[in-house]
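Protein in question kept in full:
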Amino acid sequence: MKILVGKNYEAMSELTKNILLGYMSNDRRVNMSITGGKTPVLVYDKLVEVVKDSPNYDNVHYYNFDEIPVSGQAEGITISDLRKLYLNPANINEENIHPLTVENYTEQDRALAEVGGLDVMLIGLGGDGHFCGNMPNTVNFSNLTYRIEITGEESWFEPGMGDIKEFVTMGPVSVMRVKHLILIVNGSAKAKMVKTALTGPITEEVPASILQLHPNLTVILDEEAASELSL
């Protein structure tokens, strides 16, 4: 595990952008999975400045690692978020976008293996210790890509989440197969969970704790998120 600490959100975002561009600049096909949410917003803003309308990155193929379908909506929440944050602003060719859906999730691991696997994956950390869609006390560390049916009684389920009945996610085994895993976290609110996930016992109650075992994990934090670590 390699831990990099930027002074602030801007600095950690610049670090993350540079590492991703290092992969994207290869002269071969690059398979990359990226995350939605608030933490990577500045990373994507910085990437768009470089990637938009540039033929130098036509080799990069993009994958979402989880998806939440919504009734009456053509695409799920995750890919819609990624399109808004990065894929559309960067004018990514549709042929380079490979959505994970509830219809194709059983084929995800095989499909990735056929194209050489994921070279790099950018993920965040939930305040409850989840990563991707691997939720506390729901995930099984032996899971490949899998589907979860939501009953509304799950410990992590919030009634305000709306009418969500299911979701799919790459499981721990699938994530462990990624060649380079990059975890980004910012802010003091997640400092305690950063310490728990990275230094505590490996348990399904804190799903992200399994990431300690990844052979090529880079953690990028701002000083606030790193404040409880002994570095």
Notes: The chain has one domain: 2-65+75-99+112-142+172-222. The longest strand covers residues 180-185. The two ends are 13 Å apart (CA to CA).
